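Section 5: illustrative case.
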């Protein structure tokens, strides 16, 4: 039996309906034991958007744990990248089947951004325009790439960032969970340092907050719950036309753990955001 040091993540999250919407179609969830975190921004008529985002959050977290349990039971262990991809695909399947099985939920879908701790790095996956940011030493860097019409036109050189910012087509996304039988997520890996902070957020925040704004709120040592609420308030002061969800993570030193040859596991403590 040996002692192994490592890093861990502290986190806080908050969601708000915003200033214009009648219901909240954002959802977030987490599995603290596995250090898995996810934010989804649903879309669809009636209540379909909140159904899609809630289904996707739960399916991703449950699928991730089921794969881990199956690997422990029968092996071999799946690479964590593959587990995360499989979990996003499972979320897509669950939302897709629900939309096809209920006429009131047809065409529903959701964006998704998720993060999972893997030793001293963070794996980040996304579909759509919900984003992940890394805040380090006072600077804020966008980790993900938006799957949106305007951002793809900027990356291809068809539009300048200024032209995209002035366009009325801000809400058109090119990929979403549940819209088609298959989905194409992106994966990113971030090597972590102690005191790094990461933000998972829906576009209800990022249409108002620039990276330098986020960095100002997410200062070193700031209370994570306070940062989430201050970012939400900032978006609402700017207009708050959409639902706003913020999940803040901070890298901290983990206490040494005892490692033995025996492995125990239990079902994850899944937490879902309340729908407003």
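Designed sequence:
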């Amino acid at each position: 039996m040996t002692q192994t040091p490592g890093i861990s993540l502290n986190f806080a999250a908050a969601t708000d309906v915003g200033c214009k919407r009648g219901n909240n179609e954002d959802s977030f969830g987490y599995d603290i034991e596995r250090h898995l975190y996810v934010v989804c921004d649903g879309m669809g008529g009636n209540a379909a958007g909140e159904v899609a985002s809630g289904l996707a959050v739960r399916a991703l977290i449950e699928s991730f744990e089921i794969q881990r349990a199956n690997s422990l039971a029968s092996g071999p262990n799946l690479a964590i990248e593959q587990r995360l991809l499989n979990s996003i695909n499972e979320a897509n399947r669950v939302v897709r089947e629900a939309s096809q099985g209920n006429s009131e939920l047809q065409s529903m879908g959701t964006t998704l951004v998720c993060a999972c701790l893997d030793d001293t790095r963070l794996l980040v996956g996304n579909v759509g325009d919900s984003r992940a940011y890394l805040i380090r030493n006072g600077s804020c860097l966008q980790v993900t790439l938006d799957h949106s019409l305007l951002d793809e036109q900027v990356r291809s050189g068809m539009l300048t960032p200024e032209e995209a910012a002035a366009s009325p087509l801000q809400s058109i996304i090119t990929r979403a969970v549940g819209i088609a039988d298959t989905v194409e997520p992106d994966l990113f890996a971030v090597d972590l340092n102690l005191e790094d902070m990461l933000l998972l957020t829906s576009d209800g925040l990022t249409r108002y907050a620039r990276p330098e704004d986020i960095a100002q709120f997410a200062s070193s040592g700031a209370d994570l719950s306070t940062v989430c609420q201050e970012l939400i308030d900032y978006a609402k002061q700017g207009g708050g036309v959409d639902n706003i969800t913020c999940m803040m993570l901070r890298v901290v030193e983990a206490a040494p753990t005892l490692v033995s040859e025996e492995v125990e596991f239990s079902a994850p403590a899944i937490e879902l955001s309340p729908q407003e």
